[in-house]
Amino acid sequence: MNAAAQLQVLSSAQQRQVYQGALRVLAETGILIQSPRACEVLRQAGAEWDGERVYLPADAIEEARRTAPASFTLHSRGDAPARLRIGGNRVHYGPSITATHFLDPYSGQRRQFYRDDAVSVAVVCDELPHIDYVAAMGTISDIDPELVELYEFATLVAHTVKPVMAWANTVQGCRDIHEIAAIVAGGRHELSKRPHYFFLGCSISPLIIPAEVADQLLYCATQGIPYVFGPCPMCGATTPGTLASTLVVATAEWLAALVLAQTVSPGARFVVGGSLGTMDMRCATMPYGAPELALLCAAETEVAHHLGLPMWSTAGVSDAKVLDDQAAMEGAMGIVVAALSGADLIHNVGFMEGCLTGSLQLLVMMDEAVGYAGRIARGIEVSPETLAVDGIAHVGPGGNFLSTEHTLRHCRNEFWYPTLFDRRTREAWAEDGQPSMQDRVQARLQRLLDVPRKPRLDHETQAAVEDLLAAAQRRVSRGK
Known about the structure:
The chain is an alpha/beta fold. It contains 18 helices and 19 strands. Helix 1 (12-29) packs across helix 9 (243-264) and helix 1 crosses helix 10. The termini are far apart.
């Protein structure tokens, strides 16, 4: 068996220490869960609830850890064969949600995000070979704010066959998204068997799970929809000023959510993790391109895997404002660390300005970095076939192996071939107009955007989705 390249941040003993620290926090300090229904579910499972905080015993957490699946499948939409196996040393990448701004894919200017941009994101993600799932990369600004997440999901699912990441501000929004997904899948039963989307929820550090998040979690667990719970603690602000304490707080938050999901639906598909960062004391920001974020996410991956749980991580993001050297360096270095950590789902790919701005340009560039990092993580296979001792003897000293059958058999799979990096001679590069990396990224993005934008849903399905959107719009209008 080939031993893949790996990065290890924590020893096994340190992983256990983080887990034990989180157990103590949940048993002694407790966690504020703002949903009475969720608190009652946990109380019936053996937790203590004093009307405000929930205190979780270690045995309830251990039971939840045992019932949660170590791996599961996210399916592509319809009959598409591609699917994601979450867990089992497979790393998958995608963008994220709720950025307030967007870099125009043509001009590169920072602006608001529109519904048509969600179409562009879906089309580009669908074509990039190393992007495994799709998310909106922005918050649609040209529709009713109360329906943003619903329109995002409906737009994305109509223009990609890859799995889609969903989110919502309300439980009703969560239910509406599930209804759209069921329409597309051909019914709730088919959707439960072959989920083509997953749902994201986040805690508020330190140690708060908002009511809408807890109730959405309960809904997804009972409907068989994979749920990702991603804390976003900031070391030095919402956690104490040490990286180890940040690991403890984040772990405690997702352990509480895990218990809630497994209590209401044992075996519910669940992914833990998040974006664990620090506060830049000079700027009062959470830098997403910082080495500490990559280090924390890699360490949290080890804690999650120590407990037998899939991990949601962060990489391919930068604090740069434009597609420049900083964006390339921060994004690519984060991708390499995340790949070597073995995280199962990696999000935020293509986000700039500390996740305030989505950029298809950076997404295209990071697709190349994912391929590069994936080749490193794959390691070197050592076997009688790859050692090729007999082949070396056959050619002997002074020969060459360019035309041997062994080289022809392996050269396509053994080597990584770039799409954007330029390996040509200087003369060939000059004859082509001396394109920079930014030029090549923009040219590739334009080719991807030229893909026809016709919805991939049949007419009847698309009409049913539009009817649901219209009903949601009427409901919101009545509420106003």
